[in-house]
Design goal:
heterodimer; A: 275 residues; mainly alpha; 10 helices; 82% helix; flat; disordered N terminus; B: 257 residues; alpha/beta; six-stranded mixed β-sheet; three-stranded antiparallel β-sheet; 8 helices; globular
């Protein structure tokens, strides 16, 4: 490798330039759009209740921070509770399925039904039978748990057959096969499922909050958006929306980081482009 | 080393194995004797891997019997090396070698000693903490062999372990395997489709007919060990290879003798 440094150095530099472009270009686009938006709003003298400029949105974010941050906390709490329950429920059910074909055959269709029925349609029903926070949590859980279940099931079943034979050769018990073979083998698929579930649990929480509508003690960001809409506080709507987006992005990066830190030593998906 | 007179470890008698659409083995008779290095040689699909899996107890014969002279082997008394390295990608090299010992619930200190000596045996001491993806194909196969040896098994079953490797690596691994076999005093059953490999390694070669797999000929390779690189280029080696090739060709042309 050291004989011809230009050959190895060049692609690496190109790689770095590519990374810089991938980060800088979207930021540049964002800056231009925000600038154009601000200019357009100012030049046309558009009132706030029609389209607020980015500066007004930022002002609303600062002035209403108390209300908005409290709502953000509510939504995030719901999201993470739902995600946690989805991960526990999805993995537990997938393990149960992998241990008993009968259980899998009996329950899997209902997991699918729960998934394909739009959660917006289920939310009003849940709100009748459950107290509001529990109903919101249930909605978020319903959308989030299926990817965990489906991916973990796939992972638990895609085990190297020779390794299964090897475990059999050494007289491994079912528990040993599960702990030392199936679960580690399922980890990449499982983490991919958790990453999808992170975004979905936020969506589920928002959908349920919108469906719940009524002002409760704990009202989340989605409720803030609906409420601000009724009161024509459009800058605050945008501010709340911005916070939701940022929360979604943060969740995605957090879970990607988790996935990478668990897998980076061995899994192809987490390897740097080193060849 | 008159391996043909040593005590038998396991005998397959009139063993047949049928899958849904094919008969892999039919009236297959085969005895493994203590201390020998015996190869099952045949074209792909002749049931040689099936024979190995039957001995390992990974599958049951459709008919016939498998007789162990000292009773059925306990877990860990058999080592198995697959055609692929079959390593756990999430575990380090030493973690992979440790696996059989963990499944057998050996205590930590003994297990660590076994892992260390197994890795030293295949020359991978410095790579104990590496992960499989960081290793070359030949090194992965060494890890696989170390894992099979970790439980100090009496009988080592190897299913075309070098088939996917390049020739240089294959020769080196074959040399090392012979050295291990001689120093450790194991019994090896080696499945291969390579005439040259089987002649270089074995005391005895069992040539099989394809579909259904049956014993066509048994050829003793009574060249003395240790066999070094010089053996590969000797006229003696060439003569054995010619004999075995002819037997293999006859097996493929004529079926049962």
């Amino acid at each position: 490798m050291s004989v011809e440094p230009p050959l190895t150095a060049e692609p690496r530099e190109a790689n770095r330039r590519d990374t810089v472009l991938r980060i800088m270009l979207p930021i540049l686009v964002l800056g231009l759009v925000v600038l154009a938006w601000e200019l357009a709003v100012r030049l046309t003298d558009t009132p706030d209740y029609e389209v607020p400029g980015p500066w007004r949105v930022f002002e609303a974010l600062v002035s209403d921070w108390k209300v908005l941050s409290a709502s953000l906390l509510v939504t995030l709490t719901t999201t993470f509770e739902a995600l946690g329950l989805a991960v526990i429920g999805g993995i537990a059910l997938a393990i149960l399925f992998s241990q008993s074909r009968l259980v899998e055959y009996s329950l899997y269709p209902y997991a699918v039904i729960l998934q394909v029925t739009p959660v917006v349609a289920i939310a009003p029903l849940l709100l009748i039978y459950l107290p509001q926070p529990a109903a919101v949590l249930a909605c978020a859980w319903i959308v989030a748990f299926f990817p965990v279940l489906a991916n973990t099931t796939l992972g638990l079943n895609s085990v190297d057959r020779n390794l299964v034979d090897l475990f059999a050769l050494y007289g491994a018990s079912r528990v040993q096969v599960l702990l030392h073979l199936r679960l580690p083998a399922a980890l990449p698929a499982m983490l991919a499922g958790v990453r999808i579930a992170g975004g979905l649990s936020l969506i589920g929480a928002v959908v349920a909050e919108i469906a719940a509508g009524s002002a409760g003690a704990g009202s989340g960001l989605a409720f803030r958006i609906a409420e601000s809409g009724y009161r024509l506080m459009v800058p605050r709507m945008f501010a709340a929306l911005l916070l939701l987006s940022l929360a979604g992005i943060a969740i995605f990066f957090l879970l990607s980081l988790l996935s990478h830190s668990v897998l980076h030593r061995w899994h192809e998906s987490a390897l740097a482009a080193e060849r | 080393m008159p391996a043909s007179e040593a005590a038998p470890i396991v005998a397959l008698r009139g063993v047949g194995k049928a899958f849904e659409t094919v008969i892999a083995l039919d009236r297959f008779d085969f005895t493994v004797r203590r201390g020998e290095f015996v190869s099952l040689l045949g074209p792909s699909g002749c049931g040689k891997s099936t024979a190995l899996r039957l001995i390992a107890g990974l599958t049951a014969p459709t008919n016939g019997t498998i007789e162990w002279s000292a009773g059925k082997p306990a877990p860990g008394a058999l080592g198995f090396v697959f055609q692929e390295p079959t390593l756990m990608p999430w575990a380090s090299v030493s973690g992979n070698v440790h696996l059989p010992l963990k499944l057998l619930a050996l205590d930590r200190t003994t297990a660590e000693q076994r892992v260390t000596s197994a890795l030293a045996g295949v020359g991978l001491t410095e790579f104990a903490r590496a992960y499989p993806r960081e290793l070359s194909g030949g090194m992965k196969m060494r890890v696989s062999i170390a894992r099979a040896l970790a439980t100090t098994p009496q009988l080592l079953l190897m299913d075309e372990p070098f088939a996917a490797l390049d020739e240089i690596t294959r020769f080196r691994l074959a040399n090392d395997l012979l050295r291990l076999w001689q120093t450790l005093g194991k019994t090896v059953v080696f499945v291969t489709h390579s005439v040259f490999e089987s002649v270089f390694l074995s005391n005895r070669i069992v040539v099989m007919t394809p579909r259904p797999g049956r014993v066509f000929a048994e050829i003793a390779i009574d060249a003395p060990y240790p066999r070094e690189e010089s053996f590969r280029t000797s006229p003696e080696y060439a003569a054995f290879c010619r004999r075995v090739s002819q037997a293999l060709a006859a097996a493929m042309a004529g079926g049962s003798a």
